[in-house]
Specification:
The structure is a homodimer of 294-residue chains.
Chain A: E1 6-12, H1 16-27, E2 31-37, H2 41-49, E3 55-57, H3 60-64, E4 69-72, H4 79-86, E5 95-98, H5 104-110, E6 119-121, E7 123-125, E8 146-149, H6 157-169, E9 173-176, H7 179-205, H8 209-217, H9 223-229, H10 234-243, H11 245-267, H12 271-290
Parallel strand pairs in A: 1-2, 1-4, 2-3, 4-5, 5-6, 8-9
Antiparallel strand pairs in A: 7-8
Chain lengths: 294, 294
């Protein structure tokens, strides 16, 4: 496999994903010079102190002028602002990619702001933890995980292939997908589960004080699995829901119908309806284990 | 700590929980003779072959006549049938306990069938995995986990204390609770999360074939955490919902209201509502980690 080596990579936003990718690229020797552009002074300081990047700045021109790869790892709601800041300073031939959890909105917000000759390859690594910030990144985060690239028709094929190679070099599998389809698939595999987890933990959080203590104490009975997901970054997730509205509302409607059907079965004591539904769901778990994604 | 040693313990139902408790009691020398009463020939065969019990039978009289401890680990919907089968054969002084996830219904179904002089100490270990059957049990399942005992007013105190000691000996912490309160707490920490997980995995399962493949492939983005819970034993969970109906429907109503509020915020683009809610839920995760139940 050819190693795609970049001269200078700039990470716009050096959070969990950006800092993990920086660490992985450094580990595998995929870039010579590492820069970050981040609005948070604390994140810039941490990223430099930990050696994740060589230079950290809040000056867009300084950050991207020399970059031949720019990785946008900011909340997707900030995409337009990022585009406005870096667009004028990008040099022709530079590859711009992102790691956002929604793709249509990112393409819509960023494409008009990129100059001629810059190659945009939207991407989404299916990896993460509930922890945020550059101090929580690690080089192995993407190993054995999928990365979805959603290039637009007409995108420079060499740029797409170079990005695919980069992700494969750090241990990921690569899937190329239409951005519209991506947003529909992720609405069910990721966005709906997060919304549900946030909701159920919020419902518990609203209970009276003494019940809260008991919920924490006895959380091992199912609840705690939801709290991990519901500890994910609030701003990142706010932006996901605002920017994948139609797909999320559509799967949410299906979910609500299904939940209502089970609620009715409980109310009327229809045990066979419950048992049938609970039996069907075991097969999916088995398939996930077989696909080594468990 | 005094070791509560029983002469003969009988496990009515030798599934994940029963077989784990049998292993733990054997490991810590808490009984001399181990018997199971199970309607499944396969389970009986496995339990004997693995040395989990010494004797396995489907004859209630043979199973419990000599027992000074009987542990009911059957689906809670089978409680009445279990009571009818074993009740006439229990000897005075025997302690009967159970491990069911609901307590009011078990007490309602079992108490009238127990003869005078038998001590019933209802219990619920907050531990488990998504795997079923005696082959999946292990002695360490209860270590560091809570066990909730819900004795009725007037229950022999020495029997309650003996059961508490037994659970402490195998590594659990013990909490004594009113059965009604138990059912309310578990409805939120356990029953609702399972219902939600079953629902979301079912919603995904109903999608067209090619979408299903992609959901499995990209499940690491949140969905897979739900599939683990939704792979739990269907009959056990059918019975939980049928036997804790009021408490489950009540928390489900709260959950649905909260979900509807977030759905509305997504539809109308109310980012601050989402961000506020997503921020509140982080604190609960932190509390669970601090309580060492993560």
């Amino acid at each position: 496999m050819t190693q795609p080596v970049f001269q200078t990579v700039c990470f716009v936003g050096i959070g969990l994903i950006g800092s993990s990718l920086a660490r992985a690229m450094r580990k595998h020797g995929l870039a010579r010079h590492f820069i970050t552009l981040d609005i948070s002074q604390a994140a810039r300081k941490t990223a430099v102190e930990l050696g994740v990047v060589d230079v950290a700045t809040d000056n867009p021109a300084e950050a991207v002028a020399e970059a031949d790869l720019v990785v946008i790892g900011a909340p997707v709601g900030a995409t337009q602002a990022v585009g406005e800041a870096i667009g004028p300073h990008l040099k022709p031939g530079t590859i711009v990619t992102d790691v956002g959890s929604v793709k249509l909105a990112v393409i819509r917000d960023l494409m008009p702001l990129l100059p001629e000759g810059v190659h945009f390859v939207p991407g989404h690594p299916i990896a993460g933890t509930e922890h945020s910030g550059p101090e929580n990144g690690f080089a192995e985060l993407f190993e054995g995980r999928w990365n979805i690239l959603t290039p637009l028709p007409g995108t420079n094929e060499a740029a797409v292939e170079k990005m695919a190679q980069l992700w494969r070099c750090i241990g990921s599998m690569v899937e190329v997908m239409d951005p519209h389809h991506h947003d529909k698939v992720l609405a069910i595999t990721s966005h709906l589960p997060h919304l549900i987890a946030y909701t159920i933990v919020g419902t518990a959080n609203d209970l009276e004080g003494h019940m809260q203590q008991e919920i924490i104490k006895f959380s091992a009975s199912g609840f705690r699995d939801f709290t991990r997901i519901a500890a994910s970054d609030p701003i990142m997730w706010r932006d996901v829901f605002l920017n994948n509205r139609e797909a999320v509302l559509e799967v949410l409607q299906r979910f609500t119908e299904d939940l209502t059907a089970l609620q009715r079965a409980i109310r009327w004591g229809e045990g066979e309806v419950l048992q049938k539904r609970f039996t069907e769901t075991r097969a999916i778990r088995r398939a996930i284990i077989d696909a080594k994604q468990a």
